[in-house]
Write a structure and sequence with these properties.
This protein has 933 residues and is of the alpha/beta class. The protein contains 36 helices and 25 strands. It is an enzyme of class 2 (transferase).
Length: 933
């Protein structure tokens, strides 16, 4: 692979660190026969070969980052502090890529204390001084400041050149002004602060107008826009520090002279051995052919047939159909070890756990299934009993033959934590908890339920049976078919092994087949980032929350329930006195007769059956018509609190832990919100005195406190940003009272004359607009005529016309695509958006408007939970995340660590996303959940 070289050939500087990540995300998953992931290595090796052959690069160097800490961290300690850990499948590829550089006999450079970009800048400057042309092999925006005067960039993924026109298209300025634009706009990826409220577009306008950063800052007082002017003046030093962070160092004390940046003649045996080891058959054939053409004698190593075939099977995005199911019952250790060895060779294994109940913290494991290829799966029974013995676990003789739990744990443990073997589960949160109770960890792990959710959101369910039908055309065996239903249902440990094998092995098999489809679709549908950085990391975070549970004061609940019951008796007597006779308040039929037949109240509505409806909406409308209505409403509220919380929560306390362990559904809503069940801890009312009393029963353990941190008005902030409502953006940036400001601007009331009533009306409109409230709904909420409510909404949309435009654009996009997109790229599907029925279509349109806002808030919270969890681990914090309630996170933490933990959590929540307005998180702590507010 040699070519004649001029005295000063073009210098190719390869951004090795940057290319690793781009290749990893651009290429589909690929594993070597022994299971090691190699997709980034493959992309890198092909790129190097192309440089040396198609480009005939005679002078080239590959440059890497030495480590995270550089001189920039001394300037700004938080530089790159919010960087995510690299994906688990990428970690083992770093060393293999460096090995690839050495195999191709290329200079491999790095220097402690500096980033790869600084070395590239230094060598580029030296080369220009010698009259050389420089090609930087990268698409990194930070390197674009070097473009011009003989320096271009080459994006190897998109196969395109980047020169001055492309830089201008990206930044809106010429390359020499890129640093100033970056200093103003900042960079959320590298945690470069910049100037709040100024993005790339605004920064480019300012730099083009004023020439450079220092001139702009010196003349900031001349800027007409008050928000922009004040931000530049207040954050001038942030801009200067940001410039120091983004400007590349062109005077790095490099240790390798530029003349030595030449590839040496490759050692053919070393290079081909490396490519054979990596099982890059196509590239190996190209390299050996080229070497032979150059007259070299080359032995062509053969790839191992078994491992190559296994790798091909693991990568096949469309499993052969029909696939013959070959399921094996594994009942002894040698058989289990064979399956473990196969999983290690393939590098991918799907797994599923079978248990005797669906409560992770108390259930017992019954068995585990594994799948290594479509149709090739096994079931490992561990704790089955003999069904003929009536389910009695008498002795080993009464049990079917199976591996002991201790033997299983010893054998399977290394596989579950092997970084070169990707484990795949469906609803893996449950399996993680089950195995963690046995002292077994699982990493790395993919989850097909979360992959499906990232791809198709609320367009359908994400249970395995439904996905198998939709994507594989398979009707799977249901749990009821194996265990029965109702009173006749048996636990899985009593299922005969032949039936258990067919059911459990199929689960693992289907999981693997779904993964093969979804992994490819994530890339093709551009949903890899959403899944990898938001949904997938949440798996482990939420599993930890559910396992931890929250402590409940049973006695407090019992006393509360008693008080609620006594008050209900009083209210019942009051209602019956007002009705003039006794009746059952819990009977909608009897209540309807009392209200509308006997008391003759107006506003009643009848059902098709002829009975009166007495649901909450009806009572709300006639609340002021008779004193009996508020008494009934109070009775109902207490009845619900007593049944749902004071009584039911006591039954939910697990004897084993003394805590309540809610279950969070990660893939249930259309917007990305988590939902809590068994019990639902997200619907405890906070605005009523009784609801706040319920929260006093949620307590911290001895020496601990409960810490609550929640976002302040996150959805309104998102509205201000996503609809680009400048008045609201300014208000949030300046810390103004958003509801008072809205009232002032919509109703024309000076701030000095603002009343609580006027502010309350504006608050209702602010939040109502988010949920697409109608004039009818607002009228009912505020107790005003519908015409007046309609006028309020009209005035609001006229004052904030940007919101009206956003609403129309969102509805139009939803009608065209069937979904809306959150700011972080999640698809929120909207059913009925093209309905002919006006009422249904209007409902869907309101869902679309709200879905984008609520979905963005949900994505930000998901990212915040991931970031907070990692930050607490880095800090060695003893805090434990317990609950997520929409915009709020609840932690249990030693009282002595509360303040430090609050600071960490607030910081991570506030920088979970970069909006045009600041995100604000507020913290409080106390002995109970109520005390924390």
């Amino acid at each position: 692979m040699t070519s004649p070289a001029p005295a000063h050939p073009d210098l190719y500087l390869v951004d090795g660190s940057g290319f690793i990540f781009r290749a990893f995300h651009a290429l589909p998953p690929m594993t070597r026969g022994d299971g090691v992931p190699v997709n980034a290595v493959y992309g890198f090796s092909n790129m190097i070969y192309k440089l040396l052959t198609d480009f005939a690069a005679a002078q080239v160097a590959v440059i890497f980052d030495a480590k995270e800490e550089t001189f920039r961290n001394k300037i700004y300690p938080d530089y790159k502090a919010n960087r995510d850990a690299p994906p688990e499948e990428l970690v083992p590829q770093f060393a293999l890529i460096r090995e690839s550089v050495h195999a191709f006999c290329l200079p491999c450079l790095e220097l402690e204390g500096f980033e790869a970009d600084d070395l590239i800048a230094t060598y580029a400057k030296q080369a220009k001084a010698r009259g050389q042309k420089v090609v930087i092999v990268s698409s990194d925006k930070d390197l674009m400041q070097l473009v011009g005067d003989g320096v271009t960039m080459w994006d190897p993924i998109k196969a395109r050149s980047i020169a001055e026109p492309e830089v201008f298209e990206k930044f809106g300025v010429t390359p020499d002004k890129v640093v100033d634009v970056q200093a103003l706009a900042g960079d959320s990826v590298d945690n470069v602060p910049g100037v709040p409220g100024i993005g790339i577009k605004t920064a480019a306008q300012l730099i083009n107008e004023y020439g450079d950063l220092e001139t702009l800052l010196a003349r900031a007082g001349e800027i007409k826009q008050p928000k922009r002017r004040e931000s530049l003046i207040e954050h001038a030093e942030k801009a200067r520090v940001s410039k120091l962070l983004v400007k590349l160092d062109e005077a790095v004390p490099v240790t390798t002279p530029i003349d030595e940046l030449r590839p040496r003649e490759p050692d053919s045996s070393k290079l081909t051995a490396y490519l054979a080891k990596m099982e890059f058959k196509t590239l190996l054939n190209r390299v050996t052919t080229r070497l032979r053409e150059e007259g070299q004698v080359v032995e062509h190593p053969d790839l191992p047939v078994e491992t190559a075939a296994a790798a091909a099977r693991a990568l096949d995005p469309t499993p052969e159909a029909p696939v013959e199911a070959r399921y094996e019952l594994v009942q002894d250790l040698p058989a289990l070890q064979r399956w473990i060895a196969r999983a290690q060779r393939v590098g991918v294994v799907a797994f599923d756990t079978e248990t005797d109940s669906l409560t992770p913290c108390v259930c017992g494991i019954v068995g585990v299934s594994l799948a290594v290829a479509p149709g090739e799966a096994c079931y490992i029974p561990l704790c089955h009993v003999n069904p003929d013995a009536g389910g009695l676990d008498l002795d080993q003789a009464a049990k079917p033959q199976q591996i002991s739990l201790d033997e299983f744990k010893t054998a399977i443990g290394p596989l579950l934590t092997d970084p070169s073997v990707l484990k795949i589960a469906h609803n893996g949160k449950f399996d993680l908890q089950v195995l963690q109770c046995l002292g077994l960890d699982v990493t790395p792990i993919d989850d097909t339920m979360l992959m499906s959710y990232a791809l198709d959101g609320g367009s359908h369910g994400h249970g395995m049976d439904e996905l198998a039908s939709i994507h594989l055309g398979l009707k799977t065996t249901t749990f009821a078919e194996v265990c029965g239903s109702g009173k006749a249902q048996i636990t899985f440990d009593r299922v005969p092994l032949d039936r258990a094998l067919a059911y459990a092995a199929e689960d693992a098999d289907v999981t693997l087949r779904l993964w093969q489809l979804f992994k490819q679709r994530l890339l093709a549908d551009h949903m890899t980032t959403l899944y990898e950085t938001i949904d997938r990391p949440l798996l482990r975070v939420v599993a930890g929350m559910e396992s931890a549970g929250i402590l409940i004061d049973r006695n407090a609940l019992a006393k509360m329930g008693q008080k609620f019951g006594e008050r209900m008796v009083q209210l019942e007597a009051e209602v019956q006195k007002l009705a003039g006779r006794p009746f059952n308040l819990g009977s909608p039929k009897q209540l309807g007769e009392v209200l509308f037949d006997e008391l003759k109240l107006e506003g009643g509505r009848k059902l098709k059956s002829g009975a009166w409806t007495t649901d909450a909406s009806v009572l709300d409308e006639i609340e002021d018509s008779h004193p009996i209505i508020p008494a009934i409403q109070s009775w109902r509220q207490l009845a619900k609190l007593k049944a749902t919380y004071t009584d039911a929560l006591q039954e939910e306390i697990q004897q084993k832990t003394g805590r309540v362990h809610t279950s969070y559904a990660l893939a249930a809503t259309s917007t990305g919100r988590l939902s809590s069940t068994e019990p639902n801890l997200q619907n405890i009312p906070i605005r009523t005195e009784e609801g706040r009393q319920i929260r006093t029963a949620f307590i911290a353990g001895p020496g601990n406190v409960l810490l609550s941190v929640d976002y302040s008005q996150i959805e309104l902030r998102i509205v201000a940003d996503i609809a680009n409502i400048q008045a609201l953006r300014d208000a949030f940036t300046n810390g103004d009272d958003i509801h008072a400001l809205t009232a002032s601007q919509v109703f024309g009331v000076p701030m000095a004359d603002m009343t609580k009533d006027i502010r309350a009306r504006a608050k209702a409109i602010n939040f109502g607009i988010i949920y697409g409230i109608s004039a009818f709904g607002l009228a009912r909420q505020l107790g005003i005529p519908q015409s007046e409510a309609s006028a309020y909404i009209k005035a609001y949309l006229e004052r904030f016309s940007e919101l009206r435009d956003y609403m129309e654009e969102t509805k139009s996009f939803a009608r065209k695509h069937g979904y809306v997109l959150t700011l972080l790229g999640r698809k929120c599907h909207v059913a009925g958006i093209n309905e002919k029925n006006p009422a249904r279509r209007s409902f869907a349109e309101r869902q679309a408007i709200n879905g984008r806002i609520q979905g963005t808030a949900a994505d930000i919270m998901r990212r915040a939970m991931r970031n907070v969890s990692r930050a607490l681990q880095r800090a060695g914090s003893p805090a434990q995340m317990l609950l997520q309630v929409h915009d709020e996170l609840v932690f249990e933490v030693p009282e002595t660590h509360a303040e430090a933990t609050a600071a960490i959590v607030r910081t991570e929540m506030e920088r979970a996303a970069t909006l045009g307005v600041p995100l604000v998180a507020e913290a409080g702590w106390g002995k109970s959940w109520a005390d924390a507010h």
